Amino acid sequence: xxxxxxxxxxxxxxxxxxxxxxxxxxxxxxxxxxxxxxxxxxxxxxxxxxxxxxxxxxxxxxxxxxxxxxxxxxxxxxxxxxxxxxxxxxxxxxxxxxxxxxxxxxxxxxxxxxxxxxxxxxxxxxxxxxxxxxxxxxxxxxxxxxxxxxxxxxxxxxxxxxxxxxxxxxxxxxxxxxxxxxxxxxxxxxxxxxxxxxxxxxxxxxxxxxxxxxxxxxxxxxxxxxxxxxxxxxxxxxxxxxxxxxxxxxxxxxxxxxxxxxxxxxxxxxxxxxxxxxxxxxxxxxxxxxxxxxxxxxxxxxxxxxxxxxxxxxxxx
Amino acid sequence: xxxxxxxxxxxxxxxxxxxxxxxxxxxxxxxxxxxxxxxxxxxxxxxxxxxxxxxxxxxxxxxxxxxxxxxxxxxxxxxxxxxxxxxxxxxxxxxx
Lengths: 317, 96
Ligand SMILES: [Fe+2]
Ligand SMILES: [Fe+2]
Hints:
The complex is a heterodimer.
Chain A: H1 2-16, H2 29-48, H3 50-54, H4 63-88, H5 94-102, H6 120-140, H7 146-174, H8 178-197, H9 209-214, H10 222-240, E1 250-252, E2 257-259, H11 265-275, H12 279-292, H13 294-316
Antiparallel strand pairs in A: 1-2
Chain B: E1 8-15, E2 22-30, H1 33-44, E3 52-57, H2 69-77
Antiparallel strand pairs in B: 1-2, 1-3
The structure holds fe (ii) ion (2 copies).
Residues 46, 76, 79, 155, 159 of chain A line the site of one fe (ii) ion (FE2).
């Protein structure tokens, strides 16, 4: 008891001194568990996040926009893989993590349970959803766990193109015909609130945050990140000439931040519970994609075995 | 054979350009070295981050354990005379 107490104290002092924890270092069991849960959820979000956008790959309005969207979706697959790798350094098993996603045991970001009904949604997602993800991920570049931090640095380098391509779509629509402007406004109306919910519950309703901050897994609170995101995004919406669907949104001279209206937390918890518009469809699509890819994995195994056999015979001869 | 757990983990090292060493980029799963290389190209070099890739089975790596950190790295700590700043050279001598 005394021993483990002092180990935890040494661990905390090490983290407080801004040192990174590496896979083989001693760490409290709860630190390991918290990280596995957070990193695997993050990985699942990248992977499920491909689904709403892949809906538009075949319907992109030009070859240029199709190539861009394909590249973005492929990046998200890569992000999922970097993160699964980071979780594996903590002793998590890839297959277990994917099973947990497919059985609904593991969570992923609720934002991906909303439908993508128009091309403008590709703009709003890049601009707002990737934008909110970037705010979180920039913070996580400084997380205390080395492999997670390195995965985040790599991801952040790739993300800025995601947000810019989204904003470009919004700019084009916002300068277009009245119908296109209406499409852009409609997408903003639907994606605004779910995007600012991405930062999670208010600080006072987020009981595990304090420990994560203490361990420097998180470096900023949910509310801090949300406020930063809103402050940054309002001028971007103004530039587009679009209106953020929040009548209470206004600049507060005193605080130097935007005040904003009450978030519908009931909707937030309903979507987490599985009652969002697309929860079932996303999980079904994910499971189907995994099953449909089964023959590829089998073929790869068969090929590897055959090659190994061939080498063996070659050596014997 | 539907169990993917027989896919080994490979560590990926990427040389970003000639003249620099290979640097650890991350890891991935693959059934053999050849496919590990192909996967590594897709996963770790989508933006021409590399001119050369190494893949090594994770199991084949022998790592020093952090508990041995002190005996392993301590000997150099008390040999300060191995560092140039240990020696005082007068300014008049110029850069050395
Ligand atoms: Fe991503
Ligand atoms: Fe992204």
